[in-house]
Amino acid sequence: DAGVIQSPRHEVTEMGQEVTLRCKPISGHDYLFWYRQTMMRGLELLIYFNNNVPIDDSGMPEDRFSAKMPNASFSTLKIQPSEPRDSAVYFCASSPGTSEQYFGPGTRLTVT
Amino acid sequence: AQSVTQPDIHITVSEGASLELRCNYSYGATPYLFWYVQSPGQGLQLLLKYFSGDTLVQGIKGFEAEFKRSQSSFNLRKPSVHWSDAAEYFCAVGAGNTDKLIFGTGTRLQVFP
Description:
With 112 residues, chain A is mainly beta. Chain A is 0% helix and 55% strand. In chain A, strands 2, 4, 5, 6, 9, 10 and 11 form a 7-stranded mixed sheet that branches. A 4-stranded antiparallel sheet of chain A has the order 1-3-8-7, with no helix packed on it. Chain B has strands spanning 3-5, 10-14, 19-21, 24-26, 33-38, 44-50, 56-58, 64-68, 73-78, 87-94, 101-103, 107-112. In chain B, strands 2, 5, 6, 10, 11 and 12 form a 6-stranded mixed sheet that branches. Chain B has a 4-stranded antiparallel sheet with strand order 3-9-8-7, with no helix packed on it. Classes of the chains: A mainly beta (112), B mainly beta (113). The A-B interface holds A 4, 31, 33, 42-43, 45, 48, 50, 55-56, 91, 93, 95, 97-106 and B 32, 34, 36, 42-46, 49, 51, 90, 94, 98-101, 103, 105-106.
């Protein structure tokens, strides 16, 4: 198994631009999680899905952030418009439903 | 509410020395407990997990952890540390009937030759 796949690995964009991060979970995993990691705030859960349905989006910082999971093998996290304070590493993780989560390599986002 | 405390922000050990990273949790029932490791520029990798049964759990890379209900602890140990073990280590607890994980703030391990 290839594990959780995230793209792009690095993204540099200017303030105000739209950013889309992509994730392919491990096949057969019913849960998908989006996290953000920064030095100041550590690892934060943004949103998670079960069977493609968003279950808890209480961690999404504001309306500029949105996430979708159109099918079991693909999810996106979109930031529109982006701001410098959104600079962070964004992780996607998937789980077979036993609480253990498997993380992707992350997308390092820099907003200038 | 569930919570996880990793009291040590930064630990430094010499290569070959033993290691113990502390983790305390707060949870009303029998928890699901995890240790993850994050090398620089990488994602989090699952080291080991505890669901039930034997309280001493073996993981990858020679790590083990012991669940102590009386102390609400799940400390990570390794008898002899290698330079490649330098990384950040996260303890996590499964949040009840959801599949969310509550993560500790992490312990950064530095290994001197």
